[in-house]
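Field: COMPLEX_INPUT
Field: COMPONENT_COUNT = two
Field: RESIDUE_TOTAL = 790
Field: MODE = joint
Values follow.
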Amino acid sequence: MSAGVGVDLENLWIRFGDFVAVRDANVNINGGEFFSFLGPSGCGKTTILRAVSGFLDPSEGNVLIGGKNMKGIGPNKRPTALIFQNLALFPLMKIWENITFSMEIKGASAAQRRKRADELLDMIALPGQGDKLPSELSGGQRQRVAIARALCAEPDVLLLDEPLSALDLKLRQHMRTELREIQQRVGITFIYITHDQGEALTMSDSIAVMRAGVIDQIADGKTIYNDPNTAFAASFVGENNVFRGKVKKVMDNEVLISTNRSGDLVARVSTANQGKMSEGDAAMMFIRPEAFTIAPTGAAGDHFVTARVNHEEFEGNAFNIFTEGEGGKEIKVSIPNHGQSFEDHTGQNITLEYETRNAVAVPAGELAAE
Amino acid sequence: MNTSFLRISIWVYLAIFFAYLLGPLVIMSVTAFNSSGFPRMSPWECLTFQWFGELFQDQRILNGIKNSLIIGAGTVALSVAMGLAGALMLTQIWPKLRATYYTIIIAPILIPGVVLGISTLVFWDRINRMLGLGADSFLSNGIFLTVIGQSTFIASYCMLVLVARLQRYDMALTEAALDLGATHAQAFRKIMLPFMRPAIASAAVLAFLASFENYNTTTFTFGEYPTLTIELAQKVRYGITPAISALAFIIVALTVFFALLNEAKLKRQELVAAARKEATVEELAGKIKLPSFFAGNMAAVLLVVFAVATITVVGTATAYNPAQCIADVREQKQLEAEQRIQELRKQREERRKQQEAQEAEQGEAQSAPKPSNNSGFGNVFAPNSLGGDGDDGASDTESEPSNNSGFGGVFDPNSLQSDQ
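Field: COMPLEX_OUTPUT
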């Protein structure tokens, strides 16, 4: 990490009347980090961003940028630049005027602005487009102009509010790489808001998973994916099969869970919950579709699940098997395609096997909506 | 069969509709060029431009136009500013209050202008007295009162126009400007105001026109500064002349001109935008390839036609001398008048002969009706007085066109009756 300016949220509460949008958020974002807030729409992540940029005053708690309390400092005095969800490019200004708006405010001459705009246009790979109007650019180009405009203000912290959501899939994937590259080049702190876990996982150094105003987990992408703190984090990030049940037996960092419909299964307790789960507690365990393998028929034990295959899909890189376990329990299995021959199991009963370390147990909790 | 009937009906309907809309304007415009002293299209006498000359020599009309322009400018400034403030408030206000606020701010449009005029007068008079100022103070000045009075409801019109545009404004643009370091004032001036510019222009035009044509509010507030509408209304009270038609024609012509100009400009912008969209980066970096001004721009073509027509008319007006025509018409009228006098004389002669014959028959007992008959019709039937009237009318046509009785007794209903 280069030494950028960090952002800290201390006991941050934001209320709108009786509605609590953000509940006691404590976040420590390092300087130069690419930090994402990940959560479904309405979880309060945009509210946090607006509190950081200064458009919204926290009800309680503090926002610190570079260790300095931002209370009472307006958005135009903060060292942040926000990239809006709809980009908010000034429609009547040419691209170069848009990009250098922050310089115009400070009274820079047109020549200076022109020069800086050209530099930034080169950086975002849009050389010579400065005289166009925003409406004459494509979605991806506008996106990059918005980034250039924010960077022109030379912020210490760049805030991005779902900037890729309006783009089509191909462009979105391309822009992910590009954003990450730009961040690494300029070395400033990026705070990124998204509901797309793919974006968060691919770009971020750290991710905060949010649910209904509460931050469930802050960690790097791998940890969030493999070692979720809560049922919500486990179900929201990536695909997961959930098994509900009760803790039957605690064995060091593993638990045996008596599931409602799939018998007794063993799972690893997620790191944050180790030592906190005891016998009789309601629990949930999660096994990712790709963690299953097909075992020989008849195998049984605490890491085997039997299920009947409903239908199968070929997705190119993987075969998806949709099964129905005992009692109508739906399980999705994903077998990577290595070019092997693949037998059609539709209608058959199969036995699925998993490794204990790939099954994560957490206390029962709210799941993400499908 | 059926469809063709329908089509014909539509055309007939359209013809009637436009005749209804534009007919009075056309007729009024034509009367401005007829030398007849009373604004009329037929009988056509002579093509003349004298009414325009007369119009521009009428100090009251000119003064009225001047006052109207001053008041119009004041009203535009005040109404647009108030309208913009009202519109901004509407977007900022607490949503629950929005409907109520909207109703209140729209209400002046529904209140009769007369009431607004009276209330403005009374209210400012009170203020004036409260402040202990005299009758000649600024607060009782006609221009000030009229501007204030008109703005009370014109500002509402402006607000409606501005709100429509403001609803399309993305508040994120202001936030983006703030975020990039602009102050609220800078964000307003550099982002929102340019966005609102077209609507502000529309509102200003609307406000000016509304102010210019306003009568019922102004009539209470104008004080010593009568506007054009007030002057016209006062003039019409004492008889209408074609000079007013000339003024109407100028107003119509200006309206058509600006409408066409605006249309041509819009069309041109459209064409330029289309061209820019198709242009490549290189073309944009260099010179924008502008389409020729007239390509696909009907309004521009009409505008040029209009301009040429105007130049032609003005050219004709300076070169053309209707004196010969007017003299001819006068001569002809004189002839007609003389002819009619001859006829009347003849009729009278015959009647007298008949009466004499009757008197001869009925004896001398009934000689009384003759003098009473004479006095009943006044001097109209006196051959000498008729002749004199006719002469006067002919000579007056030039010097006093506004005189309705310029044609003497010839067109007098009473004298016509005598024909029967």
